[in-house]
Amino acid sequence: MSDQFLHDPALEPGTGSRSAPFAITTDSGDHGYRKGLKARHIKMMAIGTAIGTGLFLGTGGRLTKAGPALLLSYAICGIFAYFVVRALGELILYRPSSGSFVSYAREFLGEKGAYIAGWMYFLNWTTGGIADITAAALYAHYWSMLTDTPQWLLALLALAIVLSINLISVKIFGELEFWFALLKVVAISAFLVIGVFLLVKQHEVGGYRPGATTMLGHGGLFPNGVIPVIFVMQGVIFAYSGVELVGITAGETAQPHSVVPRAIKSIIWRIALFYIGAVLLLVLLMPWQEYSGDQSPFVTVLTKLGLPAAGDVMNLVVLTAALSSLNSGLYSTGRILRSMAMNGSAPGFVGRMSRSQVPYAGILLTAAVCVLGVGLNYVVPQQAFEIVLNVSSLGVVSTWSIIMLCHLAFVRRARAGLVQRPAFRLPLSPVTQIATIAFLLGILVLMWCESEVGRQTVMAVPLIAAALFGGWFCVRRRLRAREHSQGSPDTPGVSAK
Asked: 491 lies in a domain?
């Protein structure tokens, strides 16, 4: 494909109004997909991807560390998550792409930027996938009939089920993910309604009367001090991972310019309601020390209430949430790997598509790495979740940082008159991008200081960098050969130097 500009003389992204033509670049990784995702799929997935293992399982452990002040951690991280997805939304409306931020990194940061973005995202979701199958196994142990089943076997079963779903077609994926997300939203909404009812009626939960006394009467807002509230942010970032999936799904919907802005705008109230609202109710209903990292706090509350089968129903919901997160991870990495393969920065075989237009090779590669998580659950079942959570957080930090760097470069080009920004924009640029990147780098410092596992994770950064450096020399020759055979790279400014 030659270096070219496509012109849309009719529609300015994000506005729906007639405007002057502006330049858009294409990405060869976008070809071959069916536009099988509908508006309702995108909207519900935008909600569902932010409601997963990090909220349903991770919140319990974080409450035991930070206490009621966990609310502040969720609020601060939520603001930066919104900045990231808002910046990505502007890039999507500039040019929808199934390669998402990897495609934008290729255009604005060069092929090296796309290479780093893609493989770090792969690291993010493969380790995140391990966290999801680990969580699924832990949830399954809630039921007595599965208590004695080895954790590694349950993790393997979860991976096999979700992998099968993902390989069928994007339409089936979208439909199942829609219902997965709807189930999570309904469950959290029901919990919020029940929690508010218990609060208003002052109905005891586990022997405690709900209210401010329960929330603040066990050490105050900061029972363990301010430091733990800061430290748990590296885990909270993991809880918000997945919000960037809206960028990848935009490449497989027929109406991204109308669907994406509405989906992104809903994220801010979703964060406030489902995360901050849910945590607030949890600490109002029972003291923070009543929760644990081994069980979903929502299951804990409903079990303490003694409602018939309520704990079982909620545990089924959180199990579904873990499978949903894994489903999204396999979907997104398959598309990202194909975009990289089509442009030369990943092995060619991961660019293969099935007859139903599913990038099955990339999905299978991701699943193969997740199998390592099955082994981790066999060797260190008690530490498996914490280990992969820390590594996945590295991927989140790098992915979000690259999105903001791409947006900075995009804005710089727009000011130079080379591209045109859509009406749907990230506010206060470049302050928001710089502040977000600084915050994300601070997360690495927190990981180093928080625990031995965190320090080991940060110490792995030079090893990851060395692997990326070595891999670049492997793909550089292929990238140069591709440039020579086609006369020029796929997008402006791309060079395999």
From this structure: no
Read off the pTM.
0.79
Burial annotation 416-427 (CB, 10 A radius, 16+ → b, else e): eeebbbbebbbe
- pLDDT tens-digit profile of 208-222? 999 999 999 899 999
344 Ramachandran zone, left/alpha/beta (phi>0; psi -120 to 50):
left
Amino acid at 319: L
Q: Which domain holds residue 158?
A: 6-486
Q: Which two tokens stand for residue 279?
A: 């945590």
pLDDT at 314: 78
In sequence order, which residues have a C-beta less than 8 Å from that of residue 463 and are 6 or more positions away? none
What is the average per-residue pLDDT within 413-438?
92
Residue with the two structure tokens 């959180």: 318
Distance CA 131, CA 484 (A): 42
Among 29, 50, 45, 174, smallest CA distance to 95 is for 29
Whether the per-residue pLDDT at 396 is higher than 70: the answer is yes
Q: Note whether residue 475 is domain-resident.
A: yes
How many domains does one find in the chain?
1
Q: Is residue 346 part of a domain?
A: yes
pLDDT score, position 18:
33
Q: Which residues have C-beta within 8 Å of that of residue 445, sequence separation ≥ 6? A: none
Backbone angles phi, psi at 353, to 5 degrees: -115, 150
Kindly report the CATH number assigned to the domain that includes residue 368. Answer: 1.20.1740.10
Copy the structure tokens of residue 35. Answer: 């536009």
Is 493 a domain residue? Answer: no
Please say whether the beta carbons of 250 and 97 come within 8 A.
Answer: yes
